Amino acid sequence: MNYMGSLLFSLAWRNLWRNRRRTLVILFAIVLGVWAMIFTAAFMRGMSQQVLEDTINNLTGHIQIHASQYLDDPVIDHRFQLLDEALFESLNNPQIKQISSRLRVPAVIASERESTGLIMVGIDPENESGISFLEDSIVEGRYLTDPGDSGIIIGRKLAERLETRLGKRIVLMSQDKDNKITDRGFRIVGLFDTQLEALEKGFVFTGLETSEELLGIKGEVSEISILLYDINQVDVIAAELQQQNPQLDVKTWSQLEPVSKLIVDLYENFHLIWHLIVFLAMGFGIVNTLLMSVFERTREFGLFQSLGLKPGFIMGQVWVESVLLLSIGLLAGNLFAWLSVLATGEGIDVSAFAQGMELAHLSNIIPFVIISKDLILANSVVIILGMLTSLYPAWHASRLVPADAITRV
Amino acid sequence: MASTWRFAWRNIWRQPRRSILTMLAIAFGAALLVFSIGLQLGQYDLMIQNSIRIYHGLIQVQKQGYLDEPKMRSSIANISRLASELRQQTGISAIAARANGFALVSSEMRTYGTMIVGVQPEYEQQVSSLPGVIKDGRYLSSETASEIVIGRSLARNMQLKVGDELTILGSGRDGSVAATIIPVVGIYESGSRELDRNLLQMPLQVFQDVFNMDQHGHAIVVYEKDVKQLETMRHQFQQLVSTYDDLVILSWDEIQPGIRQAIELDYSSGWLMYIVLVAIITFSILNTFLMSVLERTREFGIMLALGYTPFNISRLVMLEVLLLTLLGLAVGTLIGVAINYYFYIYGLTFSGMEEMGKLYNIPATLTPQMSLKSIFLGPAVILVFTLITALYPATRIRKLQPVEAMHSI
Amino acid sequence: MSTVVSCKHVNKIYRQGLIEVRALTDINLDIEAGDFICLSGPSGSGKSTLLNMIGGLDSPTSGEIIVDGQRVDQMNKSALAELRLHKIGFVFQAYNLIPVLTARENVEMVMQMQGDSKDYRKQHSLAILREVGLEGMEDRKPSELSGGQQQRVAVARAIVDKPCLVLADEPTANLDSVNADNLLKLMRDMAEQHEMTFIISTHDPLVMQRAKRLIKLHDGQIVENNKQN
Lengths: 409, 409, 229
Hints:
The complex is a heterotrimer of chains A (409), B (409) and C (229).
Chain A: H1 2-16, H2 20-60, E1 63-67, E2 80-81, H3 85-91, E3 96-110, E4 115-123, H4 125-128, E5 138-141, E6 151-155, H5 156-162, E7 169-175, E8 181-192, H6 197-202, E9 203-207, H7 208-215, E10 220-221, E11 223-228, H8 234-244, E12 248-252, H9 253-256, H10 258-296, H11 298-306, H12 311-344, E13 348-349, H13 354-359, E14 365-366, H14 372-399, H15 402-407
Parallel strand pairs in A: 4-9, 6-8
Antiparallel strand pairs in A: 1-11, 1-12, 2-10, 3-4, 3-7, 3-11, 5-8, 6-9, 7-8, 13-14
Chain B: H1 2-12, H2 16-56, E1 59-63, H3 79-90, E2 95-106, E3 111-119, H4 121-127, E4 134-137, E5 148-151, H5 152-158, E6 165-171, E7 177-188, H6 193-198, E8 199-203, H7 204-210, E9 219-222, H8 230-240, E10 247-251, H9 252-255, H10 257-294, H11 297-305, H12 310-346, H13 353-360, H14 372-398, H15 402-407
Parallel strand pairs in B: 3-8, 5-7
Antiparallel strand pairs in B: 1-9, 1-10, 2-3, 2-6, 2-9, 4-7, 5-8, 6-7
Chain C: E1 3-16, E2 19-32, E3 36-40, H1 47-54, E4 62-67, E5 70-71, H2 77-87, E6 88-91, H3 103-114, H4 118-131, H5 147-159, E7 165-169, H6 177-194, E8 197-202, H7 205-210, E9 213-218, E10 221-227
Parallel strand pairs in C: 3-8, 3-9, 6-7, 7-8
Antiparallel strand pairs in C: 1-2, 1-4, 4-5, 9-10
Helix pairs in contact in C: 3-4, 3-5, 4-5, 5-6
């Protein structure tokens, strides 16, 4: 029915522009709606990616392995052999991108004037590089050089709190493997600065071997953090690792940080809800505008029928008109949303709300991120629901009785 | 003027379908705004209430600078006496003095560094909900009893139970060693991670003895349920402590800026969405207003010929818009209020709420706020937007020429 | 000569709220192929109603209407559309044309519906527009044509695919007498050249003069049915 199709299309197109002002008004509403959908989606996507990224960067990684009681009671007692053969074997997996092992225990830090409780993390600097925020966040001094490095890196806020600075010495106290209090002096070799205050105040880093020495152990760690090539594989790989190492506790990032997972999920669910709300807001207008143009053209529809065009053709004409309207709106809306996202550049700075953001596990710059999945969802909501909604005015047009329609002036 | 109203009313019902669709769009917007704003405000109330109720109080008296740098030396002398003076002068009994310190706390097995707070048990129960959430054992019995209560998470990590003894090792206000052995009499569970993991409470006088505090303390906490009293109370207390050097009155949101910022961030991003939504709705109903003017050109011509002024006609059109909008708003607001009332009675909960609640320190059930503000703020914004929109068609009427208008179709 | 239209005991009653209006009472009528008929009568006599029912735009309350051997009163919507498309052409008093289409597109639209090829459509529509005297105006929109010219486009469209029956409802009502006469001449020429049956409802005396047969209606009944020269 090609000839019908082209007639339908050209009639619909010309009718669309018959009342230019009215079409432009409703088009503006649709463009605004589509823009709002996609721009908001980009914002939410940016937020949730940021949450995810921060979560993974903040020492979590994609997967963590601990001794079975460690998560409940994160102390030195719950450690495991790093060079265990089965473990070594199972970590030799092509899907695993990077591995960092850490000693991670509660400790007390004391400067000359102040002291506070925090977590001491012993790391192998080379393996740790890239898996967590640390190396990129050094703002003063240097990163650790090797596992035997006896310097310590502390947060900038912590340094302020302890009234100490780069190059000064501090004392760390912790419990060794025999539950005896042990302590050691460290020189501050680096200061790090992150957007999350809790991290800056709550963690210090030293070489893995140095921390082993302090705690009196060798070749044992409390945590292995794993980065995969593909985050979507996380559940599968975690299950495999758990199966291969039943004595250990393998957890994914979402199990370790349920709040982050929850936030990511909430954003995910909110996408569709928001799209539906926006569509409803413009849907009433679309239907009303189409109905107006249908009732204005009553006589014309009568004429079509008298010329032998079937009701289906008339319905189709109005429907195609509405689909054209939606398509133009979608095109322009997508374009404007894309331009808006470009205009925001790196993202928006919300550091005015820094402590509030931290409650929501967020850092201070939120980027706008457009991904194809979100685009498809927003556009599908508009086009599918739009097509369904347009059936109502189209059906009205086809239902007009010819004799009535023609004689009506 | 009654007749003008009647005239406008009848004009609305000349196109019942169109008017109803327009009304539905407005009603949808109103219901949505009433519901979301009610829920938002309700959630904020809970967050504020909880933050005040659980530990921090509505206002606190502290030494200047203590908030930013909580050093032991920044203390208030004769704090118990000051607290009791304040109680007498204001007639408020929910006023309690506290002293804060940091120490290494050891059980038989474990050592942790945590916050220790000296409290006045009798008054502490009036300013904080913590004494009410003792799950094992009991709360502190008197200001001089040598005993301590501890959070659930910390107790588990330290493998402590009621009746066990704790060793406290820290430094006193003068830098001397502070040490004591003290029995655990109660374990509390507040639901707040920070408090449950990182806080011990002991009687104020015992604290002052152990930490060589003399009669000093760090904060006087004042509790008041009604947040609206904040400014009055702040002012009142300001006056009362003006004779002391260096004392400041801090409000709940200065002590916990994160909560206020999270609220502000949520509120402003919420409003961005509402404004966009209202703009979409107004644009999608602009056509209705426009058409009801354009299609009545001939009628307006006759009215002009009969001696109406363009102003009279514009007013009629504005009145029609106003009536239609008010009708929509009434329906929408009623629906919104009905939904909110339902959740007000039964509470609203969704999966993940519990973790979210812990994060923001609120219960797992949300209750919408039922206040004039929460009900009428949203509809008022819609009304303003639609009336501005209606100005456009109304101005077109001014350009009408009677003869021309009468001859148009 | 064969019968193109046949009405048997046709009645039409309109209901408007509580009021019943008898628009047509017991109409019996046979119309033969090639006839050029004037249906006259004062307004409200039932002319348009009868015409609409023959064209299947309206259905009788009772009775039979047969067009080209088919029972129009028993057809469904899409069969009626099919019938109108292939067998019947319409010309109305006004607003005959689709305003967003040009003169040629208006004519071609009907051909397009019948599946005629593009080349044929173009050739044929240009030819028929020339025939009705609109050469050079093919690409004008209806709003750029005079009332008479618009009606000529309508006639061109009505006959372009050679229907056996053309129904015209007051086609000259909005025209001055010169244009009206020209249009009638055109219709009669077309009827003769293309061997089509025309039924024209009117109360214009000019039309009555040009008709081969004159049927007069009064209060919904046929009061006169005469052959003229």
